């Protein structure tokens, strides 16, 4: 009997080891990116003599050009580029600049590497063992939080505020940078319902305000960066694909968001009893909503699979039928920022470049959702500067 149990355990263990190896193999394959150097150029050597750098080193790929961004965003000497990893450098650099006013390209790249490990950890199996994506993500998040905290504290000092747990001045000078970080540092909770300990009078008879700690702000920044990273990068990549498929349609942002919302859905809770499609949903029931089910409902969008820009002309879709950013009180707070980021990118790329797909495919082929809806292999393209 003991022997039998031992055999069963051995079989289960081997199966587990086999599954884990498959999973890691898939993970490592997924981070391999092929790049090709444009013939006849003397541009900086790509990392890895074989032209098969892993994604971490792909960051070096954009390094030379971040300065002149976005004009020189695409790596000189590569006319064939892979859109998705490059766009992620763009969205991350924008976030560093917009949220923290960090535009030092070395620092951006120093942060990007661990940041990628953090966001990969989000969409991984929940196995926290040494070497798993989740474990690596947790470790990288500690590093990146720490780095953000240093930036926050430095700014707090510039603004004559002090670190966590220390006394805080109430009168703030003009912030050195008008970015999200300054706003967060200046934001104070003035809720009159606050208890006496939190809102007291100082010797100048001014109300002491409750500010957020550097650690908390660093967490919020990381959260905003993560929420706005794959989402906007996916939209831009899919837009590039649709624009390659439909070169005469440049007004595609809304369409892409309907056909391929990067945020697949989310958990929510019923605030009150209600009936939906014949089902009674009691107050407090946990629910999962998906945008794509509204977007693909022919009652909302006739012939829903069709890429048809005219749908958004005139009055546009009925309320709560087009919900890529969610709806109601919980709607995405990064909505306007995402729109600007995507439009700035499109404005520059459309004016400066023409592009064609390197993997030919049916224009109606489905995007692969894993977990973001993307064209195969990160969408390799051939770029040409626009001459007219
Ligand atoms: C195309 C880009 C984006 C899409 C499609 C998108 C979509 C969404 C959706 C559907 C939600 C859930 C809303 C709900 O539960 O009702 C959400 C939440 C959120 N998004 Fe975005 N988002 C995008 C970009 C961004 C950006 C750029 C930021 C930050 C800079 C951001 C920050 C957040 C945050 C913090 C939440 C959580 C809000 C909460 O729970 O109260 N998003 N987003």
From TrEMBL:
TM helices/strands, residue ranges: 6-25, 216-240
Gene Ontology biological process terms, A to Z: isoquinoline alkaloid biosynthetic process; sterol metabolic process
Superkingdom field: Eukaryota
Presence of the UniProt keyword Amino-acid biosynthesis in the record: no
GO molecular function: heme binding; iron ion binding; monooxygenase activity; oxidoreductase activity, acting on paired donors, with incorporation or reduction of molecular oxygen
Cleavable signal peptide: none
SUPFAM superfamilies for this protein: Cytochrome P450
Cofactor(s) it depends on: heme
UniProt KW Oxidoreductase keyword: yes
Binding residues for heme: 332
Record keywords: Heme, Iron, Membrane, Metal-binding, Monooxygenase, Oxidoreductase, Transmembrane, Transmembrane helix
Entry-linked Pfam families: p450
Family listed: Belongs to the cytochrome P450 family.
Name of the protein in question: Cytochrome P450
Annotated source species: Papaver atlanticum
């Amino acid at each position: 009997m003991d022997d039998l149990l031992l055999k069963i355990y051995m079989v289960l263990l081997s199966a587990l080891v086999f599954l884990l190896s498959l999973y890691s193999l898939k993970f490592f394959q997924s981070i391999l990116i092929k790049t090709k150097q444009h013939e006849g150029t003397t541009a900086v050597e790509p990392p890895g003599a074989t032209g098969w750098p892993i994604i971490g080193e792909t960051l070096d790929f954009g390094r030379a050009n971040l300065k002149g961004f976005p004009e020189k965003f695409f790596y000189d000497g590569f006319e064939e580029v892979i859109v998705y990893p490059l766009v992620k450098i763009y969205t991350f650099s924008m976030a560093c600049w917009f949220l923290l006013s960090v535009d030092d390209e070395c620092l951006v790249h120093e942060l990007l590497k661990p940041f990628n490990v953090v966001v990969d950890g989000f969409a991984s199996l929940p196995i926290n063992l040494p070497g798993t994506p989740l474990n690596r993500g947790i470790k990288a998040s500690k590093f990146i939080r720490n780095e953000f905290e240093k930036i926050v504290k430095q700014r707090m000092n510039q603004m004559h505020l002090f670190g966590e747990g220390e006394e805080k001045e109430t009168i703030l000078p003009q912030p050195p940078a008008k970015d999200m970080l300054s706003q967060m540092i200046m934001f104070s909770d003035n809720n009159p319902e606050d208890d006496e300990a939190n809102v007291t009078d100082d010797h100048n008879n001014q109300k002491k305000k409750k500010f957020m700690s550097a650690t908390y702000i660093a967490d919020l920044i990381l959260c905003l960066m993560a929420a706005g990273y794959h989402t906007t990068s996916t939209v831009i990549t899919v837009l590039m694909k649709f624009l390659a498929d439909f070169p005469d349609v440049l007004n595609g942002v809304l369409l892409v968001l309907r056909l391929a919302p990067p945020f697949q859905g989310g958990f929510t809770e019923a605030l009150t009893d209600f009936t939906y499609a014949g089902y009674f949903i009691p107050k407090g029931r946990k629910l999962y909503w998906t945008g794509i089910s509204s977007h693909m409902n022919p009652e909302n969008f006739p012939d829903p699979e069709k890429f048809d820009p005219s749908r958004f002309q005139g009055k546009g879709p009925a309320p709560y039928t087009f919900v890529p950013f969610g709806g109601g009180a919980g709607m995405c707070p990064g909505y306007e920022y995402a729109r600007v980021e995507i439009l700035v990118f499109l404005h520059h790329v459309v004016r400066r470049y023409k592009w064609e797909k390197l993997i030919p495919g049916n224009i109606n082929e489905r995007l692969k959702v894993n977990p973001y809806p993307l064209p195969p292999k990160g969408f390799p393209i051939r770029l040409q500067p626009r001459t007219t």
